[in-house]
Amino acid sequence: IVDVQFFPQGDKLLTLGVDCRVLVWSVASGRQLRAIRGHDQETVFAVEVLPSGDRFLTVGGDFTAVLWDWARGEEVMRFRQEDEPAAHQAAKVLRGAARFVTGVSYVLGGSVLVWNASSGEVLHALRQPGFPVRRLEVSPGGDVVATGSDHRLWLWSALSGRVLHGPLGGHVGWITGVTFAHGGRKIVTCGNDRRVVVSDVGSGDQAMMRMDASVLGVVGAPWGQLVVPFQATSAVVWNTTSSSFLRSLEGPASFEQMAVSARGDLVAACSSGAGRSAVWLWRLSTGR
Q1: For residue 114, how many C-alpha atoms fall within 13 Å in the half-sphere facing its CB?
Q2: Mean pLDDT score, 60-82
Q3: Which of 67, 191, 215, 263 could form a disulfide with 171 if both were Cys (CB 3.0 to 4.6 A apart)?
Q4: How far is CA 152 from CA 15, 220, 238, 263, 278, in A?
């Protein structure tokens, strides 16, 4: 399992496997509700649930993004940039689900594509020089897009396509995770340089926390102040207002990816190791 996402209501989970299957699970019972396979058996890099909870989006190495109806298990629409095909490696839905963004990879760099979810038209192509777009996040209001590729962070306007801030520093190694906090006023990045950096979206001011090892990613409930940077076998709950450590989340296997529910009460992690893949759940308030 390489990715995990909560449904907006928090009652279901999506998992994405290396076998290109997306599985839908009940949080309460742990029962599998649906299995979907797509993208012509090519690698599927990311999955994102729409705010309505009835559809989700996948992006893959076949140069497409696909919108799915999870209850029917059917493909609703396929999106492809015909004039400059590229592998989509990240995806996020903008508020209201009328638009979504994908991070794509080219030989000499990458772009963020802003799509019209109804027509399949590319509204903006935000070109990022130097490196592919591997880390992508959208603010809760849907107006700011954050991207990280090498050691730099870029903030874009999702409406106009112009750069708001960037490139922002703070890292000396690759950025491995991006998330918003404080209702979109702060953005948190982490990297293989053992740093977690909190940047102010308005001013670009930054604060930093050092970890004891490379950080694989960071997740959080975007309206809150708590974020969860995670490493290979453990994660910490961190208060971005007081810059204080609250508790640890210990796991029995190697973490691949994590997610926080929309209400901010549950944390999910997908793990793999010893020939076994699993999803683990904790309560954010207690770490249990």
Answers
A1: 23
A2: 87
A3: 191
A4: 29, 20, 22, 30, 32
